[in-house]
Amino acid sequence: MTKTTIIIGGKFKGHKIKLVPSPHTKATSSLVKEALFNTLGASVQNKIFLDLFAGNGSYGFEALSRDAKQAYFVDASLKSFQTLKKNHQKIKTGFRTKHYFLWSFYSSFKKIPKKPT
């Protein structure tokens, strides 16, 4: 059985996304995610969201659900990268722009464009 979590707010609220099938990856609780996005509020709208150590992409998909302009997902794990792609395909949303990178945290700062694409 595949474990899942849900998008907790925005236009895709309630959509289930898979967790990374790895003992080295731990899902963020919905309470923590909700606290973060309640704090950020509408400041996410039309902004670029950087999801470092993305795992299953929970934060980035949450930001896109709340009208972020773009999301960059960065993770060095192949399992995470594959899970991110599956989650995006499963949701089949109108997410405007998303970018997936199989990079380390440190190399991501050199590679992510300075201006949005």
Automatic annotation (TrEMBL):
Keyword line? Methyltransferase, Transferase
One Gene Ontology term of the biological-process aspect is:
rRNA methylation
Has keyword Ribosomal protein? no
At the top level, the lineage of the source is Bacteria
Please indicate if the UniProt record lists Transcription as a keyword.
Answer: no
GO terms (molecular function) for this protein are: methyltransferase activity
State the Pfam families in the record: Cons_hypoth95
- What is the protein named? N6-adenine-specific methylase
Taxonomic placement: Bacteria, Bacillati, Mycoplasmatota, Mollicutes, Acholeplasmatales
